[in-house]
Design goal:
Layout (H helix, E strand, L loop, with lengths): L1 H22 L2 E6 L4 E7 L2 H12 L1 E4 L10 E15 L4 E12 L6 E6 L3 E7 L3 H7 L4
Antiparallel strand pairs: 1-2, 1-4, 3-7, 4-5, 5-6, 6-7
Length: 138
C-alpha cells in the first residue's frame, strides 16, 4: 500500500516538475571523468546562438564505436525555441543538444536525439572556444 501511495505521489508531482524545468533555459556541464554535473548556468542568447550555429554547421556523422570519451565535458543545452534541421544526415526538430568536448586530441562533436530515442552523433565546424569562454570553462 505504501509503495502504491509513493507511486501515485511521484506520478502527480512529475508533470509539475517538468513544467517548472521548461520555464527556465539552462545549460548543464557534465564532467565525464567525475561522472557528474559540475556546473549549471542559465542560458542566454549568445549560448543559444553558438549552439544553433554548431547544429547548422554539421559536417558529417561521428563514427567512433564508443563515442563518449573517458575524459572531457558534455554540455547539454536546451534550445528555446526548438531548431528545425534538414540536411543529408538528419531531418528533425531539435529541442536539446549535447556537445561533447574530449580532453584528448579528438575534436568536439554533437549528440542529438531524434524522436527522443535515437541517438545521433555529428561532427561540426565552428569555434568551440567561443562557447567555452561564455561558460567559463578551461
Amino acid at each position: 500500500m505504501l509503495k502504491r501511495a509513493i507511486l501515485i505521489l511521484i506520478i502527480i508531482l512529475l508533470p509539475s516538475a517538468n513544467i517548472h524545468a521548461e520555464e527556465y533555459k539552462k545549460v548543464e556541464i557534465f564532467d565525464i571523468d567525475k561522472g557528474k554535473v559540475v556546473k549549471v548556468v542559465k542560458s542566454n542568447s549568445k549560448i543559444q546562438k553558438a549552439a544553433v550555429s554548431y547544429i547548422n554547421e554539421i559536417t558529417g556523422i561521428y563514427c567512433k564505436f564508443k563515442p563518449i570519451p573517458d575524459k572531457g565535458y558534455g554540455i547539454k543545452i536546451s534550445l528555446q525555441p526548438s531548431v528545425t534541421i534538414k540536411n543529408k544526415w538528419i531531418d528533425t526538430v531539435i529541442d536539446e543538444v549535447i556537445i561533447i568536448i574530449p580532453k584528448d586530441e579528438d575534436p568536439p562533436f554533437l549528440i542529438i536525439f531524434e524522436n527522443k530515442d535515437k541517438l545521433l552523433c555529428f561532427t561540426f565546424k565552428g569555434d568551440i572556444d567561443i562557447l567555452l569562454k561564455k561558460l567559463s570553462l578551461p
